[in-house]
Design a protein that fits this description.
By secondary structure, this protein is an alpha/beta fold. It has two domains: 6-130 and 307-335, Rossmann fold, CATH 3.40.50; 131-299 and 336-390, Dihydrodipicolinate Reductase, domain 2, CATH 3.30.360. 35% of the residues lie in helices and 22% in strands. It contains twelve helices and 15 strands. The chain has helices at residues 15-25, 40-50, 58-64, 78-88, 103-119, 135-146, 166-169, 191-201, 277-283, 308-321, 333-349, 359-372, and strands at residues 6-11, 30-36, 54-55, 69-72, 92-95, 125-127, 152-159, 206-213, 222-230, 236-242, 250-256, 259-264, 267-273, 293-297, 353-354. Strands 14-13-12-11-7-10-9-8-15 form a nine-stranded mixed β-sheet. Strands 3-2-1-4-5-6 form a six-stranded parallel β-sheet, with helices on both faces. β8 and β9 form a beta hairpin. α5 (103-119) runs antiparallel to α11, α8 (191-201) packs across α11 and α11 crosses α12 (359-372). The model has no long low-confidence stretch (mean pLDDT 95). Bound molecules: nicotinamide-adenine-dinucleotide. Residues 11-17, 36-39, 42, 58, 73-76, 78, 96-97, 128, 130, 172, 188, 391 line the site of nicotinamide-adenine-dinucleotide.
């Protein structure tokens, strides 16, 4: 791994911040030069636990700790501002998902990165899209990239394994509010899924979204979404997600002219056509004859390192050596934000949207929602939460 230690600062010591602390402690390549949280007790507690310095303002961490790289693990709205402040100081950034709440902010962050690279060409910007490291997802990506399915015709993803209780939503006052979080399941839980979708299939060219706001929870953002996508290559996509289904399902079907790949219950089943379905439907003289296919299970090596730590290690390695691939480059983060905003814009306007859409229109709808929000959350409560239960394995 890396030849030298990298001086890292961590901002945000909440749920995911604790995961970062655990990983950092186990990584020899990191010297944790400071932790920062606006809640003084948290910063003090983790600083003591890690033998480092506590900061209560990100600017102090940036200016006083001597860090080279920062991990940003605060609520979404602050990701762009903190990343931009870091870039302006020539600091490397590993940003939690989502890159931003809306496309204009994502663009502002990427512009700042590109500008900072003019004077610091070595600057590293990574996104925490750890689900790209999951063995089944990696295998799906490889398989689709191999082109074996031929022309893709449909991808249908039902991912309702994101159950969240009212207690979860009540656990932080920023959660599930337009002002505090800027969105619901698409902004909080699904950036990973939307990132994976675009990683494999690209960003759709047309989006039709149907989002239900606070349908099952006392929240002001969406908790149930169905979207229909069209891609330039003719493929259609479906994306169905909710935080109100238990037991939930995580089933992804990918259909091409040469067969169908189905991911469900940690199995990848392939139905391989003996001939191309598109050729067969043109050439057969039989009215109803299906294409013959063969079913098999794709081998997946599950004994590999996965998760946040892999993303962090690759980021640190690149910072230390200037070499190696990141799991996800920072600017790629705009793509999942684009799909999420596109779904919501379509849902609000009750019309399909073409991509790229008018990101100013989306921003102004969001501003309106923030300003007219009448929702008052009850006081935050501590809940029993093991955040690892929320990660896809
Ligand atoms: N990659 C993943 O799997 C994953 C999982 C959970 C959360 N996240 C992301 O991480 C981010 C944080 O989520 P969370 O669940 O840990 O939130 P949280 O509310 O549990 O923790 C956020 C922490 O940030 C602190 N904070 C907020 N603004 C700050 C500021 N300006 N300066 C210093 N400290 C500040 C808060 O006091 C709090 O301790 C979110 O963007 C979320 O989407 C990612």
């Amino acid at each position: 791994m890396s030849a030298r230690k990298v001086k890292v600062g961590l901002i945000g010591l909440g749920n995911i911040g604790k995961t970062h602390i655990r990983n950092i402690k186990s990584m020899e390549q990191i010297e944790l030069v400071g932790v920062c949280d606006q809640v003084k007790e948290k910063a003090d507690q983790f600083a003591a636990e890690c033998g480092t310095t506590a900061y209560y303002e990100p600017a102090d961490l940036f200016d006083r700790s001597g860090l080279e790289a920062v991990i940003i693990a605060v609520p979404h709205y602050s990701h762009p501002d903190l990343a931009i402040e870091a870039f302006a100081r020539g600091l490397h950034v590993l940003c939690e998902k989502p890159l931003a709440v809306h496309v204009n902010e994502a663009r502002r962050t990427i512009d700042a990165y590109n500008k900072a690279k003019e004077s610091h060409p070595e600057l590293v910007f990574g996104m925490m899209f750890q689900e790209r490291t999951l063995p089944f997802y990696k295998r799906i990506k490889e398989f689709v990239d191999s082109g074996e399915l031929g022309q893709l015709t449909r991808a249908t993803w039902i991912n309702t394994a994101w159950f969240r209780s009212q207690a979860y939503y009540d656990s932080g006052d920023w959660r599930a509010t337009w002002a505090g979080e800027g969105g619901g399941i698409l902004t909080n839980q699904c950036p990973h899924n939307l990132d994976f979708y675009q990683w494999v299939f690209g960003v759709p060219s047309k989006i039709s979204g149907h989002a239900h706001i606070g349908k099952y929870h006392h929240i002001e953002v969406e908790d149930e979404v169905t979207a229909y996508f069209e891609h330039e290559n003719g493929m259609i996509g479906h994306f169905m997600v909710t935080t109100a289904e238990s037991p939930g399902v995580n089933r992804l079907e990918i259909v091409g002219e040469n067969g169908r790949l189905v991911f469900e219950n940690n199995k990848l089943r392939l139905f391989r056509n003996k001939v191309s379905m598109l050729k067969h439907l043109q050439e057969t003289t039989q009215g109803f004859a299906n294409v013959e296919s063969e079913e098999s299970e794709l081998e997946v090596d599950t004994e590999v390192p996965t998760g946040h730590k892999v993303v962090t290690e690759k980021f640190i390695h690149r910072v230390a050596t200037g070499e190696g691939e990141l799991i996800a480059e920072g600017p790629e983060g705009i793509r999942s934000v684009t799909i999420a905003n596109g779904i919501m814009l379509s849902s609000f306007t009750e019309r399909p949207v073409e991509v790229p859409f008018d990101s100013d229109q989306y921003e102004s709808i969001l501003k309106q929602l923030i300003s007219t929000s009448k929702f008052h959350k009850t006081a935050s409560k501590e809940i029993e939460a093991d955040i690892t239960q929320s990660f896809s394995k």
